[in-house]
């Protein structure tokens, strides 16, 4: 397109929910547009360091509140906590913030949880585009997701399409009351009623970008119209090189196993890192533990074969690993698939169980529930993953993931909407 457009990108959540939208903003900027990343204040510095304009749209969270991580990562109630305790009480405020940020915009792009986007766009008569970060969020009856509250329901499809539809109906029913404040706000604004904000109400009538690789799931007949699967939009911060401490460790021996719980589950790690260090010792492999800023995650009496650091850009470290142990958040999962290394997934909640199921089905991963995460079992799982079969399959899948060019594909699709 020849004319620069102002595109407001509203996202909310952990870094896995944030980084793809910065990557999208950078792709749009490279095409001559003026993107604005509208997100909580804690991300302002990272957005501006990337050379992108930031607009403050909450709700803001306190990352030092360690009780929050346990509540949000609860397998059964985590989703409800996010919606009912964090998002809905601030709905009117965030709607006002987004309304101000969208003034003069040509297009608004929304995250699955930024439920104000359709309201702001409709009132301002602006086009808007929805995005989906993980296949689970389509809640397809023909490709049933693994629900963290009841993973066993994933098998209901074997009973027939009626059973699969019942599972989707169950998810809809459980979450319906969570979003009542959205319907009330629509009425107050004089907007017509709309669908469930986590189901049909999530999707733009113009375009939905599925910002993940096609290896995770093919289009389904019950998807909303106008979906474009772009591939992952990779961005993991501006760092161009690993810190010298990490480079020296990597150079000193064989590739290590990398253990990480991303930026959300890391705050609810329990004994994960302690069991991980012991598993590495039992297996006789080197390890890198990414423990975040939580000192309680640091194991005692570590050998020289284990390096403990707070965080490292995944795109720089994962390709240097022999295997990767992750929580299954979609951002970390994408980086793991891209690296071509076998993966052990330890899902905690949300989309993580579904992502784990999908990459395990691909033949690049194995899955272990947190309650079974003990050193002896972890060592056994890793021993299997380090075999040639998993490595070859991981490299084959990585070739597809790397070829997709998600950022450019998404930016091009947005330009078509604006045209």
Keyword list:
419 residues, alpha/beta, 13 strands, 40% helix, 12% strand
Question: What is this structure, in a nutshell?
Answer:
With 419 residues, the protein is of the alpha/beta class.
The secondary structure category is alpha/beta
SSE string: EHEHEHHHEHEHHEEHEHEEHEHEHEHHH
Low-confidence stretches: none
Overall form? globular
Largest sheet: 7 strands, parallel
The radius of gyration is: 21 Å
Please, could you describe this protein's structure?
The protein is an alpha/beta fold and 419 residues long. Helix 5 crosses helix 6, helix 10 crosses helix 14 (375-385) and helix 12 (330-339) packs across helix 15. It has helices at residues 15-30, 44-49, 66-72, 78-87, 91-101, 116-124, 161-176, 180-188, 244-251, 272-283, 314-317, 330-339, 352-361, 375-385, 388-403, 406-418; strands at 6-10, 34-39, 53-56, 107-110, 128-132, 208-210, 227-229, 257-260, 287-290, 306-309, 323-326, 343-345, 365-367. The strands form 2 sheets. A 7-stranded parallel sheet has the order 3-2-1-4-5-6-7, with helices on both faces.
């Amino acid at each position: 397109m020849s004319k620069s457009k102002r595109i407001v990108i509203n996202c909310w959540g952990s870094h896995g929910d944030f980084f793809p939208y910065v990557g999208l903003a950078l792709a749009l900027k490279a095409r001559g547009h003026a993107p604005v990343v509208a997100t909580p204040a804690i991300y302002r510095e990272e957005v501006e360091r990337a050379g992108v304009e930031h607009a403050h749209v909450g709700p803001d969270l306190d990352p030092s509140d360690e009780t929050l991580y346990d509540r949000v990562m609860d397998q059964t109630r985590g989703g409800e906590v996010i919606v009912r305790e964090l998002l809905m009480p601030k709905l009117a405020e965030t709607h006002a913030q987004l309304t101000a940020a969208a003034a003069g915009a040509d297009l608004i792009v929304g995250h699955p949880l930024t439920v104000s986007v359709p309201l702001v766009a409709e009132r301002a008569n602006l086009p808007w585009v929805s995005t989906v970060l993980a296949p689970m969020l389509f809640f397809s009856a023909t490709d049933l997701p693994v629900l963290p509250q009841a993973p066993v329901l994933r098998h209901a499809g074997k009973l027939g399409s009626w059973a699969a539809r019942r599972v989707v109906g169950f998810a809809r029913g459980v979450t319906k009351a969570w979003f009542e404040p959205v319907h009330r706000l629509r009425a107050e604004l004089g907007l017509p009623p709309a669908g469930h904000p986590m189901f049909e109400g999530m999707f733009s009538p113009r375009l939905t970008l599925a910002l993940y690789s096609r290896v995770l799931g093919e289009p389904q007949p019950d998807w909303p119209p106008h979906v474009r699967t772009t591939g992952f939009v990779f961005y993991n911060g501006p760092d161009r090189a690993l810190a010298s401490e990490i480079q020296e460790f990597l150079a000193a021996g064989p590739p290590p196993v990398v253990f990480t719980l991303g930026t959300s589950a890391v705050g609810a790690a329990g004994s994960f890192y302690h069991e991980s260090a012991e598993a590495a010792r039992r297996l006789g492999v080197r390890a890198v533990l990414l423990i975040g800023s939580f000192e309680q995650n640091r194991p005692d009496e570590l050998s020289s074969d284990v390096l403990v650091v707070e965080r490292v850009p995944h795109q720089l470290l994962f390709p240097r690993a022999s295997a990767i142990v992750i929580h299954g958040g979609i951002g970390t999962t994408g980086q793991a698939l891209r690296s071509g290394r076998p993966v052990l997934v330890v899902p905690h909640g949300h989309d993580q169980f579904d992502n784990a199921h999908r990459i395990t089905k691909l033949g690049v991963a194995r899955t272990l529930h947190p309650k079974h995460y003990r050193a002896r079992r972890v060592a056994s799982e890793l021993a299997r993953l380090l075999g040639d079969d998993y490595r070859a399959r991981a490299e084959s899948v990585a070739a597809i993931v790397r070829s997709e060019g998600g950022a450019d594909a998404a930016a091009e699709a947005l330009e078509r909407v604006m045209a």
